Amino acid sequence: MPRLQDKVVIVTGSSSGFGRGIAKMCAAEGAKIVVSDVHEKPNTGGFEGDAGLTTVKAIEKADGRAIYVNCDVTKSDEVANLVAETVNAFGRLDVMINNAGVYRNGKRLHEFSEADLDFCFNVNAKGTFFGSQEAIKQFLSQGDGGVIVNLVSTAGLQGHPNQSVYNISKGAQANLTRCLAIEYGKDGIRVNGICPTYAKTSLTRELFDDKDFDQVFTDSIPLKRWGEVEDVANLAVFLASDESSYIHGDLIKVDGGETLCRYSVQQQLTALRPVRSRGGARSLRAYHGDPVLLMHVCDSAELGRFGPSARKSDPIGCSGLSRRPYARLRLSVVVAARSRRACPQPLHSIIAECGAAPGQGPSLDRMR
């Protein structure tokens, strides 16, 4: 039997991208779908093979059941109407998937406007709050539990440069997921979050088409590929189904191993910059974020040779290495996890000095 047979599922932000893929896959598993968005047509520039169809039409073409309800998730009255329309159409609600989300980046914190902050918080945090709130009211009135799945992000689990307004909104969404799980588990309401990295949607089309970014990003992922909408949709169906009946309050990554080894591609490109040492040789200033220290690796497989400032703290035991000309750098990093045993000293002022002769410094043109 299909895993979601006759379950009633709302998917916000489901005209395109993750939401569309989730809605279609839930329908294929027997669910009755309420597609919700601020516009019914898919975004342009996406990767959908059936982009000429609305999500409802695509589901109906595959013999599924779906309706569309227009909803701006930043407005509580519209979210309340979304749940009411769902109950009017199908008699109940079983699963709320809070997928609607927006993105802002490209600035340091002091450059973002209040409008940027509000844009991310209103959709990502408040939208998830309102969606969960109205779903929980309906679940409690039905008296037989329910499921909430929040589309968070790996950005909700860690920091990245140049997208603070997005990260903190996703961090709020992640913590809301935990709070809901604690509060409503006793009522039979399961709550979990999905944390994808970059995947192929209309929102990432520009990045995907940038061959330099594509190469750096793909090389940085242990599975060596971009995420697909189906990767996220598969997990969403599992979390919505009874197969995950003892999974609760979790934030599950769908990132091809990204967070095992780095913070982000953007951090590789912006946090490590070539500087000049007093002797004139090129240097790299290592990122000082806690709990990880990022350091580049040479093609020759030799680690950077550390100068006096690094020897003072010697956080990873490399102070005995001699200074040699630096080989050409690859666009990759090694992440050394900090622990009290391995690195008791603060990770401050660690400078990896190349010690290369003029003209033999690291090839960092693509990082500038």
Overall pLDDT score: 78
Largest sheet: 7 strands, parallel
List the secondary-structure elements in sequence, H or E. EHEHEHEHEHEHHHEHHEEEHEE
Which stretches are poorly predicted, pLDDT < 50 over at least 5 residues? 263-368
Could you provide a short overview of the structure?
With 368 residues, this protein is an alpha/beta fold. Helices cover 35% and strands 18% of the residues.
List the SSEs and their pairings.
Blueprint: E1 8-12, H1 17-28, E2 32-37, H2 55-61, E3 65-70, H3 76-90, E4 95-98, H4 114-142, E5 146-151, H5 164-184, E6 189-196, H6 205-209, H7 211-220, H8 229-240, E7 251-254, H9 258-261, H10 265-270, E8 274-276, E9 282-285, E10 292-298, H11 308-313, E11 329-337, E12 351-353
Parallel strand pairs: 1-2, 1-4, 2-3, 4-5, 5-6, 6-7
Antiparallel strand pairs: 8-9, 9-12, 10-11
Helix pairs in contact: 1-8, 3-4, 4-5
Question: Could you explain how this protein is built, in words?
Answer:
The structure is a single chain. This protein is of the alpha/beta class. The protein has eleven helices and twelve strands. It has helices spanning 17-28, 55-61, 76-90, 114-142, 164-184, 205-209, 211-220, 229-240, 258-261, 265-270, 308-313; strands spanning 8-12, 32-37, 65-70, 95-98, 146-151, 189-196, 251-254, 274-276, 282-285, 292-298, 329-337, 351-353. A seven-stranded parallel β-sheet has the order 3-2-1-4-5-6-7, with helices on both faces. Helix 5 links the parallel strand 5 (146-151) and strand 6. Helix 4 (114-142) packs parallel to helix 5.
